[in-house]
Write a structure and sequence with these properties.
Blueprint: E1 4-7, E2 13-16, H1 21-30, E3 36-40, H2 47-53, E4 56-59, E5 69-72, E6 74-77, H3 85-93, E7 97-99, H4 104-116, E8 123-125, H5 133-144, H6 165-172, E9 178-182, E10 185-189
Parallel strand pairs: 1-5, 2-3, 2-6, 3-4, 6-7, 7-8
Antiparallel strand pairs: 9-10
């Protein structure tokens, strides 16, 4: 499967998973500023949102080997991309790429993939609950209050929360240890253990 994403600075911003829970909110915010191309497994589910934000909607099922092609100014991935399909297509095409929904282990792998196939355009990888909103809220509050010496974040999850399948699956992984780097050394951390992990903004 050779997906063909090419850079066109006058083209739309491609939002992969653009009508899912996180992608839909992002599309509503971005639609006022840029033309959008929303993709996902079932375009019929995204038609109403596409009409609302003036976007095009197309099918791109990452589990289907059918190649996808588009000319876009940037790619934003709001889905878990387990085979780095979207990332690799953006790198090959020299298209700026933002991924805001990867699990931590998949961010580490994507970093290695990007190092082997050096990008010609910016690549931004993120990993956090609900597209990073918890970290953004903490950073905004710290800035508003004039700084913070530390931030502890807790997530209360309810089965009735608006969350996409990837976010629910991410929550299921919160019982698994994960790797952090501190002072240039790697170590494993148990989630929800009360141990403090310091992050600089």
């Amino acid at each position: 499967m050779d997906d063909d994403i090419q850079l066109d600075v006058t083209g739309p911003v491609l939002v992969v998973g653009g009508y899912g829970t996180v992608g839909g909110e992002l599309s509503r915010l971005a639609g006022a500023g840029w033309p959008l191309l929303l993709t996902g497994r079932t375009p019929e589910r995204g038609r109403a949102l596409a009409e609302e934000v003036g976007a095009e909607v197309r099918r791109w099922d990452l589990g289907d080997p059918e190649p996808f092609s588009a000319k876009v100014r940037a790619v934003i991935s709001t889905v878990n991309d387990p085979d780095d399909r979207v990332l690799l297509a953006a790198i090959r095409g020299g298209v700026p790429y933002v991924d805001l929904t990867r699990w931590t282990a998949r961010v580490q792998r994507a970093t290695a993939v990007a190092a082997v196939a050096p990008p010609r355009a910016p690549v931004l990888l993120s990993s956090s609950w609900m597209g990073g909103v918890t970290g953004l809220v903490a950073a905004a509050l710290a800035a508003e209050l004039g700084g913070a010496s530390g931030v502890e974040i807790a997530i209360r999850y309810d089965l009735k929360d608006r969350a996409g399948a990837d976010s629910v699956e991410f929550m299921d992984r919160l019982g698994l240890d994960y790797e952090v780097t501190e002072g240039g050394r790697r170590r494993m951390v148990m989630p929800l253990s009360g141990s403090v992990v310091r992050v600089r903004w």
